[in-house]
């Protein structure tokens, strides 16, 4: 399966502004402000992913976000969790307003953990509507659902409008090795989440913390991943995220979040 979902661009996720968009800081950014920050960094793609306020927005509020993005020359992508048919249709409506050609999602949501059979049936039901709108669905690899099960569903449905959002960092918690996941999903990838990760010893050397790392400094073998997935050749967008723990103070957390974003962009642009 070849991808036509993106243009092989580097983008930022709302997860790159995770703390700055949250109520944990004294003056949270709005999505409009995050878009302005994105443009100031020379980035022309932004993925609004798992951003809870989006679900309650009116068509007018969504159109305002689209207008801000258009004025800044930024293309939008969209991300959510869950595959209940009504939820997918709601986000197809959002994607149409925002002009997103892609919806990233995950199989499970609160109260719904579909089997491979149920997931396949749901995608067969809704995909004609997505195809008519020109919107692809990219299912993210993550620890709650074995990668083999996700791939089983994608192969059963067998549609160019259903593929993978690759994030090998997520699967480590299920003892799936990143390189194995990359190899398995490679033919089906429509979107890539880019974040680095590392283990560190906990205090007293009792156990480990698995958390984020600045891109290029952790365990992500980016060159191997890019060689397998070929984002430039296959027009797959690479979306920057972070797993940055709270740093004890708002100022230091924001400083590091911005530093990690700049380092990620510098790293990807150098490749």
Q: Which tags fit this structure?
A:
alpha/beta; TIM Barrel; globular; 271 residues; disordered N terminus
Principal-axis shape = globular
Which architecture name does CATH use? Alpha-Beta Barrel
What is the assigned CATH homologous superfamily? Answer: Divalent-metal-dependent TIM barrel enzymes
Relative helix content: 25-40%
The CATH class turns out to be: Alpha Beta
Number of strands: 10
**How far apart, in Å, are the first and last alpha carbons?**
24 Å
Q: Any chance you could write out the topology, listing elements then pairs?
A:
Elements: E1 10-13, H1 31-40, E2 45-49, H2 59-72, E3 75-79, H3 85-98, E4 102-105, H4 116-133, E5 136-140, H5 147-157, E6 162-166, H6 168-171, H7 178-185, E7 189-194, E8 196-201, E9 208-213, H8 222-229, E10 237-240, H9 250-269
Parallel strand pairs: 1-2, 1-10, 2-3, 3-4, 4-5, 5-6, 6-7, 7-10
Antiparallel strand pairs: 8-9
What do you see in this structure?
- The structure is a single chain.
- This protein has 271 residues and is an alpha/beta fold.
- It has one domain (10-269): Divalent-metal-dependent TIM barrel enzymes (TIM Barrel), CATH 3.20.20.150.
- Helix content is 39%, strand content 18%.
- It is built from nine helices and ten strands.
- The protein has an eight-stranded parallel β-barrel with strand order 1-2-3-4-5-6-7-10, surrounded by seven helices.
- Strand 2 (45-49), helix 2 (59-72) and strand 3 form a beta-alpha-beta unit.
- The longest helix is centred in the last third of the chain and has 20 residues, at 250-269.
- The radius of gyration is 18 Å and the shape is globular.
């Amino acid at each position: 399966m070849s991808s036509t979902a993106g243009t092989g661009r580097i983008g930022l996720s709302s997860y790159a502004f995770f703390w700055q968009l949250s109520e944990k800081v004294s003056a949270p950014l709005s999505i409009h402000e995050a878009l302005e920050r994105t443009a100031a960094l020379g980035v022309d793609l932004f993925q609004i992913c798992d951003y809870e306020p989006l679900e309650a927005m009116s068509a007018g509020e969504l159109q305002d976000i689209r207008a801000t993005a258009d004025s800044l020359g930024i293309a939008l992508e969209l991300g959510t969790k869950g595959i209940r048919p009504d939820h997918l249709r709601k986000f197809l409506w959002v994607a149409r307003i925002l002009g997103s050609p892609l919806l990233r999602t995950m199989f499970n949501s609160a109260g719904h953990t579909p089997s491979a059979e149920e997931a396949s049936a749901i995608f067969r039901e809704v995909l004609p509507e997505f195809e008519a709108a020109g919107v692809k669905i990219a299912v993210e690899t993550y620890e709650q659902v074995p990668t083999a099960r996700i791939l089983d569903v994608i192969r059963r449905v067998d549609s160019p409008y259903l593929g993978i959002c690759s994030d090998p960092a997520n699967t480590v918690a299920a003892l799936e090795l990143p390189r194995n996941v990359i190899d398995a999903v490679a033919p089906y990838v429509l979107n890539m989440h880019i974040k680095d990760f590392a283990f560190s010893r906990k205090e007293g050397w009792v156990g480990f913390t698995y958390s984020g790392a600045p891109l290029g400094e952790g365990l992500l073998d980016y060159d191997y991943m890019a060689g397998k997935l070929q984002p430039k050749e296959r027009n797959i967008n690479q979306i920057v995220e972070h797993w940055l723990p709270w740093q004890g103070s708002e100022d230091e957390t924001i400083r590091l979040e911005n530093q990690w974003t700049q380092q990620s962009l510098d790293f990807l642009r150098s490749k």
